Amino acid sequence: MTAGLRELKKRQTRQMISDTATRLFMERGFEAVTIAEIATAAQVAKMTVTNYFPRKEDLALDYHETITTALARTVADRPTGESAVTALRRAYLAAVERHDPVVGFSSPEFARMLADSPTLTARLRELHDQREEALAEVLTTETATTPDDLTPRAAAALLTAAHRTLFHHVQALTRAGHPNEEIATAATRSAEKVFDLLEPSFGGYAVR
Length: 208
Known about the structure:
mainly alpha, Arc Repressor Mutant, subunit A, Tetracycline Repressor, domain 2, 2 domains, HTH_TetR, DNA-binding, transcription cis-regulatory region binding
């Protein structure tokens, strides 16, 4: 088997395990399902599950790496002349248009499963905190700030809070059973209001 085929097989196995776990979580609740039960349902060894997913929470939130890096990557990759807040607004609206899970889009069953699980709720808070830290590091580098200047950290906290608020807004609408197109319209409208609030303070901040 070539290296390319091995990598494809690994990705397929990882996705199959994640899909199996998510189905069980939605049927029975996150806390009620064990790793052993996931392995049996996926027809793999328990060690295979833990090799791909060291934390049980990441079986449900298998896009966790994208959540933690998305804002920092958007700011780092912004074009010349664009501020951090403009880049984040643009990226958020594009994510809403494609119904991206990173900004909260999911099935109602999945959204309810997240909300009903104390463990997953705590994990989401942790991911939001990690996302804030990653954004603060990028803003510190991009603005060549001295270590004693708290501006990048304060900016990251406020910008991340905006995304956290919008994420929960999308999830609430999803749990209520609204269709994705309707949610996207509402999220776009809410995002414009939120970013308009941030614009007076951050419109000229971290312009490349």
